[in-house]
Amino acid sequence: MTEPGQASKPLPPGDISRRRCLGVASLATLAPLWPGLATAGAQLEEPLADSVRSALSAAIASQSPPVPVFANAGGRRIYQRWVERISPRLPVTIPDGQIRQEFLQTVWYESQRARLDVALVLGLIQIESNFRKFAVSSAGARGFMQIMPFWARLIGDGDASKLFQVQLNLRFGCVILRHYLEREQGEMFMALGRYNGSRGQAPYPDAVLRASRTWLSS
Questions:
Q1: Does the domain made of 22-213 have the CATH classification 3.30.160?
Q2: How far apart are CA 211 and CA 216, in angstroms?
Q3: Tell me, what's the pLDDT at 41?
Q4: Is 159 exposed, middle or buried, given 0-12, 13-18 or 19+ CB atoms closer than 10 A?
Q5: Minimal CA–CA distance to 140: which of 8, 20, 43, 18?
Q6: CA-to-CA distance for 218 and 211, rounded, in angstroms?
Q7: Residue 217: its pLDDT value, please?
């Protein structure tokens, strides 16, 4: 896990399957139209080796504020231009401008910390919760990145109510996705399937990857 403030290289999508099915388009298009959509309810609780549990717990436990650190002025300008471009696209779901700024700062910070492409994380949030802080799935998955409560017990302090906190929710989501990527040896398609509890099936990974492309920098 990259420590806050260190430069990190986002993981490329990898060898993404070309499989498509009729459900992909409907899943990708429903997310911005159906406010109640929350899709991570099938995510499975899997046994963790003690070393993995300890590493994930340590990654979650850091209380560093989500303040991006840049190596130079150029990096800061890239970030500022990104915020200016993305922020106007979120007013319906996050209408308050200051809250949007804080949300995007945290998404950027946690994505970089976990060595994930920020566009991928935004795409996942779009499909999982449509950027709804208090979204809850039928299985109880919570918040922006739809974190299942069992993760609070496995690697947190056991208090699932905290999963609605913005930074904690995004940190759990990014750390969990990085964990799944490592389990799948960098295969994003399979890691996203694990995140949704549909490993090996195309609709969910394809929907997230399709959504993520709409958040890429032009």
A1: no
A2: 10
A3: 53
A4: exposed
A5: 43
A6: 15
A7: 61
Neighbours of 138 (CB within 10 A): 10
Cβ contact 27:204 at 8 Å: yes
Is the four-CA dihedral 173, 36, 100, 91 of positive or negative sign? positive
Rounded Cα distance between 124 and 207, Å, is 9
**Cα separation of 215 and 98, whole Å?**
20
The per-residue pLDDT for 139 is 87
Tokens of 120: 């991928």
Q: Which residues pair with 136 in a beta bridge?
A: 142
pLDDT at 25: 33
Two tokens, residue 117: 């492409």
Q: Which structure tokens are listed for 166?
A: 């913005």
Kindly list the averaged pLDDT for each block of 10 residues, start to end, along the chain of length 218: 39 34 34 42 77 88 83 94 94 92 96 96 96 93 95 92 95 96 96 93 96 84
Parse the chain into domains and list their residue ranges.
22-213
Report the predicted TM-score, pTM, of the whole model to 2 decimal places. 0.79
